[in-house]
Design goal:
- The complex is a heterodimer.
- By secondary structure, chain A is mainly α.
- Chain A is about 85% helix and about 0% strand.
- The longest helix of chain A has 28 residues.
- Chain A starts with a helix and ends with a helix.
- Chain B has one domain.
- Helices cover about 65% and strands about 0% of the residues of chain B.
- In chain B, about 30% of the residues are buried.
- Chain B starts with a helix and ends in a 5-residue tail after the last strand.
- The chains are: A mainly alpha, B mainly alpha.
Chain lengths: ~80, ~260
């Protein structure tokens, strides 16, 4: 295991912990996006560029976007 | 359920997970085989060139050696879209308003020119990159799924640069349905091609071409294209459903 891989594994573990521990859903969506980006870098370093490509779009963009839209819907109905 | 009860349930589940993971990791084969016996991964990697005329072994695994996974991926997206549209349908106490961004208690600033230019400027290269990924899955990292989600991201950029109406004006719900059906149905059709011309369902029964060409690898690029179509349309359908729910539908009695 190289230093880069070790650092990335620690960052991914910390990022995953952050997503679980952040209690505000809006911030959680942002943390999930960052976590997705970190995972994508880890996949690329682990020589899995195919998985990294999908992780960038799905984990870092599509999933947080759907959470944000769901939050917008919930808050829009609270007036 | 009380907090203590929830915590107990979580700790019990976590203990089982840790035990299973430890058991699994302990039984993992070494990444590089110590002896001379080739492992499955090495076999597939060494067979991708000579046997299937494919440069990227991942494409060989996903779309040929385990081509049923491609079928499952296509139908997973169909199931996700069907479930989402069913759950996020308009309720009787909702009405469809103008598709404009809104926020509670403050005015929404109009989309700035910088965001418009960036979004519209990024759309063509993103779509082109998506098409490249879809068509070059057998040659370089990428393929139907990866290219499909990148294509969907290109479409999403149009929404970010403009309004929901601009996006929804490009296609109707019918076009989405047809694209999704073509993606999933195309995978099945290629499967039957393998059954008719080859030994088994989804078998690679087409001429393999010359290694390194865009048209090489038999059914692999064909599966990439139908899978890319299905995944791209599926993601666009999912995002359209979410956007419609969040932006267009409003509760009755809250007319603005």
């Amino acid at each position: 295991m190289t230093v880069l891989e070790a650092v990335l594994l620690i960052l991914v573990a910390a990022g995953g912990g952050c997503v679980a521990l952040v209690r505000n859903p809006l911030r959680q969506a942002m943390a999930a996006s960052l976590f997705g980006s970190l995972l994508a870098v880890l996949f690329a370093v682990a020589r899995a560029p195919d998985v990294a490509l999908s992780e960038i779009v799905v984990g870092a963009v599509a999933l947080p976007l759907m959470i944000l839209l769901a939050l917008a819907k919930i808050r829009g109905g609270q007036r | 359920m009380s907090i203590a009860g929830r915590r107990a349930a979580f700790l019990a589940g976590a203990a089982v997970l840790v035990a299973l993971l430890t058991w699994g990791f302990a039984g993992l084969l070494p990444g590089r085989p110590a002896g001379p016996t080739p492992r499955v991964g090495d076999l597939l990697a060494s067979a991708s060139g000579p046997d299937r005329h494919v440069v990227d072994p991942v494409a060989l695994v996903g779309l040929d050696a385990r081509s049923l996974d491609a079928l499952v991926a296509a139908f997973t997206v169909v199931a996700a879209v069907a479930g989402t549209t069913l759950v996020l349908r308009a309720r009787p106490d909702e009405w469809a308003g103008h598709a404009l961004d809104f926020a509670t208690g403050r005015r929404v600033p109009p989309t700035s020119d910088a965001v418009r230019v960036l979004g519209l400027g990024l759309t063509p290269p993103t779509v082109l990159f998506g098409l490249y990924l879809v068509t070059h899955g057998q040659l370089s990292p990428g393929g139907g799924f990866q290219g499909g989600v990148v294509l969907a991201a290109g479409v999403l950029l149009i929404y970010l640069a403009g309004e929901f109406e601009d996006l929804h004006g490009l296609y109707g719900d019918r076009a989405l349905e047809r694209g999704l059906a073509a993606g999933a149905g195309g995978t099945v059709a290629i499967g039957f091609l393998g059954l008719a011309a080859g030994p088994a369902f989804l078998a690679n029964a087409l001429p393999l071409g010359r290694t390194g060409d865009v048209l090489s690898g038999g059914t692999i690029p064909l599966l990439d294209v139908v899978l890319g179509l299905g995944i791209a349309v599926g993601f666009v359908a999912l995002l359209t459903t979410f956007l419609h729910q969040a932006i267009v539908l409003r509760p009755l009695g809250a007319r603005r």
